[in-house]
Amino acid sequence: MKRGVYMNKNKVVRLAVVGGGRGGTFSKVLSNLADKAQLVAVCDHDEAVLDRWKDEFPEVRSYDNYERLLDDGQVDAVFLATPLFIHARQAIQALQAGKHVISEVIAITTLDEGWELIETVEKTGLTYMMAENYCFMRPNMMIENMVQHGLFGDLVHVEGGYIHDIRNLTHYPDGKLTWRGNLLKSYRGNTYPTHSLGPVAKWLDLHRNGEDQFESLTTFVSEGLAGQIYYKELFGKEHPGAGPDHWKQGDSAVTLIRTKKGKLITLRYDIQSARPHNMTHYALQGTKGAYLSPRHHNEDPLIWLEGRSPGISSDGSAEWETLWNYADEWEHPLWQSWGSVAEQAGHGGGDFSGFPSAATDCTDSGNTELHMTESYTSTVGWVPSRIADTNSCRTIRRFLEW
Amino acid sequence: MKRGVYMNKNKVVRLAVVGGGRGGTFSKVLSNLADKAQLVAVCDHDEAVLDRWKDEFPEVRSYDNYERLLDDGQVDAVFLATPLFIHARQAIQALQAGKHVISEVIAITTLDEGWELIETVEKTGLTYMMAENYCFMRPNMMIENMVQHGLFGDLVHVEGGYIHDIRNLTHYPDGKLTWRGNLLKSYRGNTYPTHSLGPVAKWLDLHRNGEDQFESLTTFVSEGLAGQIYYKELFGKEHPGAGPDHWKQGDSAVTLIRTKKGKLITLRYDIQSARPHNMTHYALQGTKGAYLSPRHHNEDPLIWLEGRSPGISSDGSAEWETLWNYADEWEHPLWQSWGSVAEQAGHGGGDFSGFPSAATDCTDSGNTELHMTESYTSTVGWVPSRIADTNSCRTIRRFLEW
């Protein structure tokens, strides 16, 4: 076990950010975690990005080559904020070089990559965390806490939705496709499911204690029109994206999953349609109550709990109340500790709240299983994209081996 | 063609209600339609129900036998407000006796019944209407009007949800099951899909002009816990319903449908789970805008239309606005004519608004195709329940023949 080989004596994790564009947004977060993690290096292939880092953080070492970063013995862990297609390869390389890994989603894009990543984590004994930040948003954590204390009874149905028009992030100013554009061009299905699946998978305690796991799933995809319209308007009808056959992805995808214990999961994914964004649609139905996220940022999350909330279900008198009525009693312990700091970070606190947990896990002896199972969730989350074209529905036997 | 054989000269339809319990709620509606329809008879097997009708409507003839009602030459049309398992049989009998038919949902419960009903309508030339009242609710009609005028562009995804804990309607006071109880006991799947499917099928113009129709569908069903809990609490653990294997139905079912043109439909069905009701969840996504129904009765339906509503989709600034901002411009013509009367009826006006259309159709020469195709929608809506147990997903080839 190489665990902790490069660990600093005072247990502050020396962290390198890989992908300086997006990764830069986390530097503010880290300044609040000085006793747990220290930003010591950055890696990016773009000289202009590195120059900005040098100006802002002159004490941070900069690398334009990933292999040379991994040779830096004064780096304990890497934070991968790179395009999703290279996450798995970079994570495996880092683990092999003795570094702990925090990876942004999606963790892997093929099952083979998934197995290789899992085996590398197990062989090295290092910590790997898939940084699914939406699990760490305040309402999602509060619901998780209430589920664990049985307030909703047994869960039967959960929903997650990631609806977020990012057509303007799919191309460079000259019309060339970014990695997000290539994702739409080359894949069809629910290709980015972890933001919607992550929190509800935690509520269901899936793939963690071995009691429940995916049994069968299907993904249906609509026709794709939004990409054509957008590219035709912006770049003219000569742009390949303005044609009818350029984009493999459709505008909306919906995935249904049934678990071995009979829980039902509905996930919606749409990153092209014209509308107000809703990246954080969630719902939960249990035998003793229900939860429903807001439709937009000016609404409250709603909850109804049998015997506590107003009215009776079976006679039609039940009335929702705001989730915040339960904040004093059921705020997640992690949010109680870090909430005021997390609220300054992005994605509803999610960009922050995972860090204390990850940093603790890299320094203390302890449970790597937690984060490993989150990478499992990512793996199976990716699978729907592989079967969407046929609209087929089958038991993914491989899940049973896990 | 027997059409109009029994028609009254002044074109007022002489209507008989079949099923005096629920059917009685429509008598108020009919009083507002005196120039179009007249309630002349009622049929029920329960003497107590008939006695109440005699007290309240002494001029209405009462029958305790359906065949004798059908022999009444002074009845032009029957309104079937009976348990769903007998709708198709009663409709076919009435048509064969020369009566027009308005049937509550579900219209049919097997494909064989569906074909027999269709053939009987075509042979007799009489009018058959499936009274899917949710199509006639105010916001659903306004959205239909806006869709038809292209305000949402091309539709790509629609949602319908019928979430309505009616466990207290599944049994008599002594614990014996009602027909609703037997539906839960004997069938598994999305067994009552027309309230959620009806309005969105109209928005998509499905199975009407021949341009688009269902291509493939699947239904996933959760485990069933709510029935056991309810029956155990109310009747004790000796009641068969308190046992784990009594109910074939699960608590929540979700159906995915893809049409030939690539439109995606998501339907949710739950009539047992403990929570505030939401019988009218609807959503729509088009290439130029989106619609989202309220979560409860104190919220507005929300709309966003490109170029009209605030903000831009692709830069994240788009903001919902209330649908009622568009009422002056886009109120459905039928609601403009009848809205003030319809608001006094049940189900958000839906219990009323279908009647003027149906009454007109029974008296004027004209289009029976409209209502026939609505019975098609019902037919295919029922199909998911037949395939839910296997979680299988396949093309229902029979749709293609229609």
UniProtKB/TrEMBL annotation, chains A, B:
Which cofactor(s) are needed, names only?
NAD(+)
**What superkingdom heads the lineage?**
Bacteria
Which UniProt keywords are present, listed alphabetically? Glycosidase, Hydrolase, NAD
Q: Which residues form a coiled coil?
A: none
> Domain Gfo/Idh/MocA-like oxidoreductase N-terminal: where?
14-130
Q: Which family does it belong to?
A: Belongs to the Gfo/Idh/MocA family. Glycosyl hydrolase 109 subfamily.
Q: What is this protein called?
A: Putative dehydrogenase
Its ancestry begins with:
Bacteria, Bacillati, Bacillota, Bacilli, Bacillales
